[in-house]
Structure formats: C-alpha cells, structure tokens
Design brief:
The protein is built from six helices and five strands. The chain has 196 residues and is an alpha/beta fold. The longest helix has 17 residues.
Length: 196
C-alpha cells in the first residue's frame, strides 16, 4: 500500500467507525476573505435589480476563517484570524482542546503550518492525533461541504462595507446553522441525493 492509500484508509476508518475515546473533527481554513462586492443570484422586484458596484478598492486587507466540523454533533466552530500561520493554528487547537474532553482526532490537509514541530509537540502533549489527508484529496474532508453552504448564505450576492460587518454575517450564519443541525443534515442529504 502507498502512503496516500494508508492516509485515505485512516480517514475513512475514522468516518465509518469513530473511536469511543474521543471526537473526530474536520479542520480547514476558509479564505482569504476580503471586503468587496461578490456576485450571486437573488430574487428582486421586477425592473428593480439588486445591483453591485462595478469597481471597488481593496483597502481593508484579508482575513481567514479557521474552522472545525464536529461530525458527531454536526456542529461548526470557527475563529476569524488576520493570518493563517502555525501560531493562529495552535491558538485554534487550544480552543478545541478546552472545548472537548478525551482524545481529539483532527482530519486536515497537508498545509505546511499544520506540520510545524511546535504543532506536532502540542498535539502529542495534549492527546490530539493529527490525521492528514492524502495529497490532492481535499474532497475527503467533510468540512468542505460546510464551506459551500457558508459561502452561499453569507458571501454570495453581498457587498459588506467593513470586515466587522462580514464577520458578523458569518457568525450569525454559524449560530443559526448550529441551532438547526438536523435541518442542515436533511438539506445536505437532499442535495446529495437530489431529493425534492
């Protein structure tokens, strides 16, 4: 077996037979997010389209959403950060470690900050197993589906004026999504199997 097939086997094993001694979480970064008009589709009154500006200035920089998806509880947890270095990642790992008891199995991609010596040391000291996806297999990470919904409901057809306004919309969506996990699961199943 190749290294990639071993990684895939380990990820699928965690999905299909989650261990009793801890939590399986999917982690990824979403972004970079910038404050600019983003096109999308929406309903509007006849002859009164909801228009976005044709030009804009990038004056506020970018930000990144670090997020984890709890498979068992079907909940999304996220923090907005100005950068996505190993320092921001370790802060998010500390947040997750404080949130959960038992061992954490964190499925993630092979982004270089995830493999820093400091990250590996922290994971080993704090009962966290870092489970890396095979190369070019981001589709195996279940958090990607959650990002699709987040993009649809918070970013498409938006024209936020400030970073704060954008973050508020994202937080509002995550709060709503976590309060309605059963509805979200049903929506995802309907999309997956094209049920109407």
């Amino acid at each position: 077996m190749t290294l990639n097939s071993n990684k895939k086997k380990r990820v699928l094993e965690l999905y299909h037979n989650p261990p009793n001694n801890g939590k399986v979480l999917c982690f990824d970064e979403f972004g970079p997010l910038e404050v600019r008009p983003i096109a999308g589709a929406n309903w509007c009154l006849k002859d009164k389209p909801n228009r976005l500006p044709a030009t804009y200035h990038r004056t506020q920089g970018v930000q990144h959403l670090l997020a984890a998806y709890d498979l068992e509880e079907n909940k999304l947890y996220a923090h907005m950060k100005a950068r996505k270095r190993w320092k921001e990642f370790i802060q998010f790992l500390r947040y997750l470690r404080n949130r959960y008891d038992g061992k954490l199995y964190i499925i993630m991609d092979n982004f270089s900050p995830h493999k820093k010596a400091e990250i590996k040391a922290y994971a080993q000291e704090n009962y966290i197993e870092l489970v890396f996806l095979p190369t070019n297999a981001s589709w195996l990470n279940r958090i990607e589906c959650e990002f699709t919904a987040l993009r649809k409901f918070t970013l498409e057809n938006s024209n936020y004026k400030t970073k704060k306004e954008q973050v508020k919309a994202i937080r509002k969506y995550i709060i709503w999504r976590n309060k309605h996990p059963k509805n979200q699961r049903l929506i995802n199943l309907k999309r997956r199997y094209q049920i109407t």
